[in-house]
Amino acid sequence: MFPLAASGGAAAGTGGLISFLVPLIIMFAVFYFLLIRPQKKKQQTRNNMLNALQKGDKIVTIGGLHGKIVELADDTVVLLVNDATKLTFDRSAISHRVEAEAQS
């Protein structure tokens, strides 16, 4: 009597484990493709933009300040805000580069 009960319980346990793991795997795949992967792609695009900055580029900071890059260092950027004002920012404080067509 005990061997039959043990073998029937083991088969039900394996099926229960599979039915538990499949939804978890599907849920992880959905999170990966909808949240993690797009965020990594966006971060990579931002890093490429920050590494491609050059003197003379017109940029906008995260705070909304518009300026032109006059000096670049590894982790800082000096912006010319108007004819005489120069401000130093961290490179990570740059939001985006302003294209020449967008200004006109």
UniProtKB/TrEMBL annotation:
Its main location: membrane. InterPro entries: Preprotein_translocase_YajC. It comes from the Bacteria. It is a single-pass membrane protein. It is found in: Cell membrane. SMART domains: YajC. The chain crosses the membrane at residues 12-36. Keywords: Cell membrane, Membrane, Protein transport, Translocation, Transmembrane, Transmembrane helix, Transport. Belongs to the YajC family. NCBIfam families: yajC. This is Preprotein translocase subunit YajC.
